[in-house]
Amino acid sequence: MEFPAALLTRLQVEDFIYREAALLDSWNIEAWLALFAEDSAYEVTPPGVEDPDRISRQSAYFLIGDDRKRLGHRVARLGQPDAHVESPRSKVRHVYSNVIIAEDDADEVRAYANFITFRTKRGTIEYFGRIRFVLARLDGSFLIRNKRVMMDIDALVPQGKVSILL
Amino acid sequence: MGWDRPYESRFLSVDPAAQRFRVNRRCFADATVFEEEKRKILYRSWLYLCHESEVANRNDFLVREILDKELLVTRDAAGEVNVFYNTCTHRGALLCRSKAGNRKAFGCPYHGWTFSAAGRVLTRNADTGYRADADADGAYSLKRVPRLEKRAGFYFINFDAEAVSLDEFLGDAGERIDILDEHSTGGLEVIGYHEYSISGNYKMMCENSYDGYHLMPTHGSYFTYQKAMLEGLPQRALGGFALSLTNGHATVETDIVSGRPIAQWLPVWGAAAHDLIEAKKLELIERLGEKRAHQLGQTNRLMVIFPNTVMNDQQSIQIRSVLPVGHDKMITRAWLLGPRNEDPELRRVRLEGALSFLGPGGFATPDDIEMLELCQRGYNMGGVEWNDISKGFEAGEETARGTSFWNNELHLRAYWTQYDKMMSAS
Ligand code: FES
Ligand SMILES: [Fe+2]
């Protein structure tokens, strides 16, 4: 029996995003940044909006709306000792599941995953919801074109802030 | 009033000769003080409710929690804005369960009473059992919050029916709210909001919002980023002042340090934004004159309306309502505003500027939150009584209408002087 192509794509995506999460969990954030393509974006949509998949950071007030350049600054900031909220660093654990491939083209894959991310520092908080990955195919692996985090919360209560990389 | 002699209360310790002005930490750490504060301050002061653009059209509504109340704000068929307790006058069910929308009538899910957007009973879902004129006197109308008034499109409420008018309460601060409305001729609109909790007393968030003193130590990592963003602009020293206004309100006004759509371009924003921002600059001068245009376009203004409203005009207009949920917990709701029908390119750079600095996912606010939580932990451990807010304190200082260097603490002293005055009243 032939191995279904759709299943293969999902396995490839899962393998990639599990490794992506592992870089974040180990605070290997420079290496994580290197997974992003030149024209990419990292976004966290505002909680409580109707259709977080469709809105644009050019017109809506996102929690985070970084192009590749600002994401670089964000990562650099988190490496500094005066990024007080993450100094000393929190413990971070990402859990991805329910991976669904929404679109699979020759050069790009669009996938969704459910997620829970735990942050521990003076207590534990949880972030959870859905993540959209737009991944550019590159030599049998991927580069991230878009990572959009869409949380299932109405407000950052009790999370309070997004100081880690989700 | 000028501080010219020593003063001690449950909350303050002031010694002008020693240049010492201190606040007792029980104001942050004591649950019974907080209960007293609710009675003496929070339920008697004007609290921010919403901006008129949030209920722009007839039958628009929104539900907003303020302190321990859940309120229903409506614009009724006659165009009037109302604010009700969101509870059915029959047996109490929460009436409106959506956050916002447009609705002519509100139906209670329990026994089926319905109410108009003006709060009147429309039907009781019963053919028998009631007199036809049971509600002729409005006895069953939705209950209104005692006071609702607005200044330049910003609505405030007061739970004290006897309170002075909003304009009198705002005093000198009112004129500075009017400035916000002058950003455009077509009025402002709410673009979006962030809501986040902090494990700390709400008054710390007010202090932090216009605290110039903390900028470098707390936000060093933000300034590293900002330096990169400001490449190509001349570096200059930051000038500015703090100004205490009447009734505990105060503002800190400085030269702008970063770009803003009204009206300071940043090279990283590109050429398209440049022309629009320069045109905006000229429009302001033409409409308001050089001086006012400078105040509007070229200064950062951080204002705290005592006791819990922050009205900022920096990278963008941002209004914060700082709501206590106990003596050691708060929720901050922060709305971003801009001109209605703003050019999409200007809206884009407005959001750029706001996103990087402000907000719980920005480069600065998370570090502020961290500081406030560290302070609360310091207060909770007890054993140490006083906070110090003496920076720049001078004997004879007029805290109700004084001015000082922007990173002194005059404005904090104005806030706490008002706090002490209201809390010490019997
Ligand atoms: S409680 Fe609303 S109709 Fe009875
Ligand atoms: Fe700050």
Explain this structure.
Chain A has 166 residues and is α+β, with helices and mostly antiparallel strands. Chain A has one domain (5-151): Nuclear Transport Factor 2, Chain: A. Chain A has helices spanning 5-25, 29-33, 68-78; strands at 36-44, 64-67, 91-104, 108-120, 124-138, 141-151. A 6-stranded mixed sheet of chain A has the order 2-1-6-5-4-3, with helices on one face. Chain A is globular and about 55 Å long. An 8-stranded antiparallel sheet of chain B has the order 15-21-20-19-18-17-16-24, sandwiched between helices. Chain B has a 4-stranded antiparallel sheet with strand order 2-3-4-22. In chain B, strands 8-7-6-9 form a 4-stranded antiparallel sheet, with no helix packed on it. Chain B is α+β, with helices and mostly antiparallel strands. In chain B, helix 7 (271-288) crosses helix 8. Chain B has helices spanning 26-29, 31-42, 166-170, 173-181, 202-209, 215-229, 271-288, 290-298, 344-357, 365-380, 410-424; strands spanning 2-3, 7-8, 12-15, 20-24, 47-51, 60-66, 69-75, 81-85, 100-102, 105-107, 114-116, 121-123, 147-151, 154-158, 188-198, 240-244, 250-255, 299-305, 309-313, 317-324, 330-339, 386-388, 397-398, 403-405. Chain B has 2 domains: 47-151, Rieske [2Fe-2S] iron-sulphur domain (Rieske Iron-sulfur Protein), CATH 2.102.10.10; 171-424, Alpha-Beta Complex (Naphthalene 1,2-dioxygenase Alpha Subunit, Chain A, domain 1). Chain B contains 11 helices and 24 strands. The interface between A and B is large, with 34 and 38 residues. Residues 208, 214, 218-219, 364, 368 of chain B line the site of fe (ii) ion (FE2).
